[in-house]
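Q: A reviewer asked whether we had any structural model of the full assembly, not just the individual parts. We don't, so I'm hoping you can provide one. Inputs are below.
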Amino acid sequence: MKKITIDPITRLEGHGRIEIFLNDEGDVENAYLQIPELRGFEKFCEGRPVEEMPRITPRICGVCPGAHHMASTKATDAVYHVDPPPAARKLRELFYCAHMIHSHIAHFYALAAPDFVLGPMSDPAERNILGLVSKVGLEVGGEVIKHRAYAQDIQAVIGGKATHPVCGLPGGMSKPITEEERKDFEEKAKSEVEFGKFGLKLFDDLVLANKEYLELITGDIYTMNSYYMGMVDDNNKVNFYDGNLRVVDPAGKEVAKFKPADYLDHIAEHTEPWSYLKFPFLKKVGWKGMVDGNDSGVFRVNSLARLNVADGMATPLAQAEYEKMFETLGGKPVHATLAFHWARLIEILYAAERLLELCRDDEITSPEVRTIPTATPDEGVGVIEAPRGVLIHHYQTDDRGIIEKVNLIVATVMNNPAMNISVRRAARGLIKKGQVASEGLLNMVEMAFRAYDPCMACATHTLPGQMPLEVIIYNCKREVIERFSRL
Amino acid sequence: MRDVNFKALVLGLGNPILSDDGIGCHVAAALKERLQETEADVLEAGIAGLDFLDLMTGYDKVIIIDAIQTGEGAPGQIYRLDLEAFNGTRHAASPHDVNFATALELGRRLGMPLPSHIDIFAIEVADTSCFSEECTPEVSEVIPLCVEMIVQELRSSTLKT
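A: Here is a predicted structure for the entire assembly that you could use as a starting point for your response.
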């Protein structure tokens, strides 16, 4: 049999790419991040019944099916002008807290922590979750797997399927949970709270206690003075499932707070000839190019953005950690891109505490989980905080509920301008006089965009099991001088 | 005779609404029709990384079907791979999840009951970026062949000598 070795670099398309251009002096002139785009989704949806969308949209992405399912379900509520009963809303939020935990754990422990625990310049063969467990102990790996599995179990029971949920319907949920299931969730939620605390302790011991890492986090190359957008509840606390979208400026002042349905009044999209992805910006501030600051409409979403726009966390342990983060990093808002990781850990704790609260809610096992829609369907917007940030689903239908138009704005696209700025700034700060060749330095450039937990496409499963990333460096004559692939 | 204690899982990976990307799911769906329930569990999933561990735990043998783009083969070409093919990538991190080999290695170190045999059927694909429930013709054509290969593989490995 012919022996085949898989080399992702041979993939002709479909991988992310960072291109770095050097000037005559060998310094970074510019850098671009390119992310592949999947085509034809709108066309694919047209002509289908809108209630199919919550089952179709989780297929867009193998990484965040729960987020698409919930945003889509909320959009169908809006299309049918129906309010789900309280128990259905709570059950959705419970499911969704489990989803956040599941997603954030993978990102932190598998992708972010190795850079800090083993060091950003350490041997790439060691700089991964295997190296991490070698260093901090095998039992940590066991806890990571266990708590991801707990979160997954909760999603599977409510969602009806292990990976692609089918529970959300216009006006509610397909079925309630039993008392036995509630008890099981409660035990798991208690354990998730402990694990959430553990994550922050680990961050304290391994990252914050290390002066070098703290300097890295707060240093110029990973700082960006942008606007932020995120969802808040009636008390301006972080909420993943429902609320208004709030925007703060680079000084932390609220400049907008709006209902998700009004997103088109606030978000516009710029296009560039070199990128498949669009570049969303704040309409009222305007597009000033790939720059940060008060005059540029570039904004950021995801964990740190959520904490920056909110007045606090709605649960006590997460609130204490929230205060500690802002105190340590010099007050609100925090512009340190690497602090997205810290914020993510605080969110795991919040999601776990909220999960436990919901498990103990008297109404959570109520059989009243559906309001049957009676209005004529027309148009609706559903917004949720995906693990990666604000996710918008907007559908228009005919009077039979058949899809005529679909618009989705996903979080990774919202962060596209910011990721480009962050990558360029890191490249400029790290690559000087053409001295680029080290893998560690390029890893540090990548860290600038990895902090955003970008979801680069939906083909994550295509062998060899991930989306490869390529870094290409050009000299002043536009000749390729280095090419690295992150396999 | 068949060893009744031998547990096999067939895992079709991919996105069934993204053209050829969903070939693993299409083959798995066809296999469900073809196999008796006792022969193997058949699952279709669009997953990656650490999620593999949850699904594979407790099986003796796992067969994975997925799309591949080697850039060299013709669309529809079927490759039979084993984990060694991934040795070059085992220790690398990916932009959003660990790769398959890393996830397995972690599971082994943690002492999880993972399968001793993992076979991979990878099908060379052409289009993985347009939304469609159909694969391209060259790729669709090989579904029956791939199904037969997997049926043979399962039946030969579950027979006691």
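A: Points you may want to mention in the reply: Chain A has a mean pLDDT of 90. The first strand of chain A starts at residue 16 and ends at 22.
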